[in-house]
Amino acid sequence: MRSFDVSAIGLFAVVAVIALCAAAPATAQEEAPAGFLGDSLRDFTRLGGQVTSLAEAIPAESYSWRPAEGVRSVGEAFMHLAEANYRILGKLGLEAPAGLEEMESRTDKESVLAALEQCFADIQGLIRRLPAADLEQQVQLFGFEFSKRAVLLIAAGHSHEHLGQAIAYARMNGVTPPWSQGGGDG
Questions:
Q1: How far are the Cα atoms of 106, 116, 149, 159 from residue 75, in angstroms, in the given order?
Q2: Which one is predicted more confidently, 10 or 118?
Q3: Averaged over 134-163, what is the pLDDT?
Q4: How many degrees, rounded to 5, is the angle at CA 182 between CA 180 and CA 185?
Q5: Contact 175/61 with Cβ under 8 angstroms?
Q6: In sequence order, what are the beta bridge partners of 145?
Q7: Which of 18, 46, 175, 185 shows its CA 20 to 30 Å from the CA of 145?
Q8: pLDDT at residue 171, rounded to an integer
């Protein structure tokens, strides 16, 4: 009889774990916005993962490397990406960290990684808070009127542009992007 109780408890535990695992994706999907905002959230989540994993893969001593005089270094390029995201998406309510003006001057690996991780976490939070009904509202950016939807696209395009720059910098320094090692895409 005792072994039956243990088996029943074990079976209950397995069923409970399966139920929790099955519920987790549904909960995550419920929290994610639908439509364009959901697409933007997934894009920035993937983008943030790629940018930060690449920044982690590049050795600290390469952060001062630049392809030519007058061109941003590895560290400066990463920090520019973060700083510009705060400036662009500030038009949608993204709150910039203190010291935004000095952000691009902090180019050591530890500062860069912290800034990138915080930036992409902040962007994901912003997208989750944006009401879909507000996407067509107009805001001023670079002296022009854009919809909030367009501002998200501008920030994504800019971020992808600098991911490409960072990939080129990494490869020029003998670093293969982590997601493309072993023949993956990238």
A1: 8, 11, 29, 15
A2: 118
A3: 97
A4: 35
A5: no
A6: 140
A7: 46
A8: 97
Residue 33, pLDDT > 50, answer yes
Please check the confidence at residue 4 and state whether its pLDDT lies above 50: no
Whose structure tokens read 């397995």?
A: 14
> Could you write out the three-class secondary structure of the chain?
CHHHHHHHHHHHHHHHHHHHHHHHHHHHHHHCCCHHHHHHHHHHHHHHHHHHHHHHHCCHHHCCCCCCCCCCCHHHHHHHHHHHHHHHHHHHCCCCCCCHHHHHHCCCHHHHHHHHHHHHHHHHHHHHHCCHHHCCCEEEECCEEEEHHHHHHHHHHHHHHHHHHHHHHHHHCCCCCHHHCCCCCC
Backbone dihedral angles phi then psi of residue 55, each to the nearest 5 degrees: -60, -35
In the block, which residue shows the tokens 């960290």?
Answer: 97
List 11's β-bridge partners, or say none: none
